[in-house]
Amino acid sequence: MKICVLPGDGIGREIVAQALRVLDKVAAKHGRSFETAEALIGGCAIDAVGVPLPADTVALCKDSDAVLLGAVGGPKWDTIDPAVRPEKGLLGIRKELKLFANLRPATLFKQLADACYLRPDIVARGLDVMVVRELTGGIYFGEPRFEGMKDGERFGSNTMCYHEHEIRRIARVAFEAARKRSGRVCSVDKANVLDVSRVWREVVIDEHAKNYKDIELTHMYVDNAAMQLVRDPSQFDVMVTGNLFGDILSDEAAAITGSIGMLPSASLGEANPGLYEPIHGSAPDIAGKDKANPLATILSVSMMLRHSFDMAVEADCIESAVQQALEQGYRTGDIMQPGCRLVGCVE
Ligand code: ATP
Ligand code: MG
């Protein structure tokens, strides 16, 4: 079992190092062995070889069973040519590995409930939502697209497109995820207005009828879904949606938990290795200060074990260790609460 490790920039190296310590422990405890190999991506790759995604890195990722990434970017590279920005490394590797499904669980750890933005009575109902976002299609990549002059004034347009096969494969990812959770999928679209959404809805219904009758399927318009997510997130288990709606809803779902340093993500393709990374960025303001919260990356390792290696027991072991650490009162600065113990750098 081979893991390609891409620490990247900023806090990336610090948090990945902690996540690998956890991986070692869990491997030793359960008699598993993982081979890890490190490669460059983002700003550190630009500094070393002049490009954000060296060919060696792509080759190593493709030769691995999973990829663990820290974060890329930082002010040092903000002023360079946009074509070689660190972020291009991340977009590039997603494309190379054909990662069409982005899974973002938004979980509120009960020990951190005080830090949640939602009302206490809503928090009491629980918050454990998985947003499954289509990552390689939709309005981000649809043709035709245009930016320029039309009828004597500036004009821009993009096109939201989905083929049946793209909808079917993301729907399958959502149904499979729901089977391992509470068995409910809410498909989010705008079928009252958009033709592409009507195709989306019909294909999701068809895939459900053919292969996933055991799952409870509902549909919601995206505007209502955005409202319901803050009104009562406990009504959702898995939400599946297209690229643009998913971008917005997954950030919203993450934000309501109130802890950017806690949330992991997985990006999955059909056969290629999955890529696992925290949802936060390289946090240049705290990089190198031993202040970063490593839990989002540690939980990304747990997602990796669950999705790429089918090791549910080991994944559960990491999640309960995170729970225990929180219960025992260990905190980094971003989630510090009265009466808790600050770990890492104490000023
Ligand atoms: P990107 O464009 O790469 O997503 P960003 O500008 O959105 O980056 P982040 O790097 O995610 O921003 O950081 C946003 C804020 O959250 C910063 O103040 C940062 O210090 C803080 N932050 C991010 N990740 C962590 C973490 N793991 N632990 C503690 N604080 C964090
Ligand atoms: Mg960001």
UniProtKB/TrEMBL annotation:
One of its GO terms (molecular function) is NAD binding. One of its GO terms (cellular component) is cytosol. It catalyses: (2R,3S)-3-isopropylmalate + NAD(+) = 4-methyl-2-oxopentanoate + CO2 + NADH. Pathway: Amino-acid biosynthesis; L-leucine biosynthesis; L-leucine from 3-methyl-2-oxobutanoate: step 3/4. The keyword NAD applies. It is found in: Cytoplasm. It holds the Pfam family Iso_dh. Its EC number is 1.1.1.85. PROSITE patterns: IDH_IMDH (PS00470). InterPro entries: IsoCit/isopropylmalate_DH_CS, IsoPropMal-DH-like_dom, Isopropylmalate_DH. Residues 2-347 form the Isopropylmalate dehydrogenase-like domain. Substrate binds at residues 94, 104, 133, 223. It is an enzyme of class 1 (oxidoreductase). NAD(+) binds at residues 74-87, 281-293. It comes from the Bacteria. Belongs to the isocitrate and isopropylmalate dehydrogenases family. LeuB type 1 subfamily. Homodimer. This is 3-isopropylmalate dehydrogenase. The gene is leuB.
